[in-house]
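User: quick one, fold this
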Amino acid sequence: QPNQDRYLKSISQLKQIKLNDNFSVTFKCELVKAFSDEVVGTFDQIAYNKYNVEKYDSPSYLIDCLGIDAGEYYLRIYTIVTGEKNYSLTDIHMDETTLQKTNLLRRNFKGEKIPDSYTLYQNYPNPFNPITKIVFTIPTSGFITLKIFNLLGQEVTTLENEEKAPGTYTVMWDALGMASGMYFYRLKVTSVTDPSKSFTQVRKMLLLR
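Assistant:
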């Protein structure tokens, strides 16, 4: 533990010297069919910046392709960089090598199709007490916010506030302690590939005690 603490302290000091507030690298991994270039799955889009370098210092993944049709595929890294720092990617192949790490993060490629449109679904159940599920889809990478408002238009909470890869997402809202009544949830998306494009949709839901 002392060695780990010193290592994290070293990273924290180095980032203050080397990185500015504007620097970030957003990246995601895609599994792509070789002959059609169809993206059949993505995992863990990460926005790497000055404030989370310790969290994403050395992530390691165990990928489960159960549910993917047999065939030839390749992995593709998609990145977006802001700031003046240079970075590099290293392509390392380790076939027939036993992974020694014990803290692998398990991720699945389920073969789900990427949505072709923005959609904010009606929450379920509705009315609800006190937990409800909100599902939305985004067809392209984008910075998303999902917020809850009361009947007066006052913001109650923010459920999502980050960049996400194309896909279908489920968010749970626990309204424990909130007053009964009508609430609104709003999804806002700004496209990563074309920031001039945005999507906003609002739906209402009813909390009954």
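User: anything notable?
Assistant: The longest strand covers residues 39-49.
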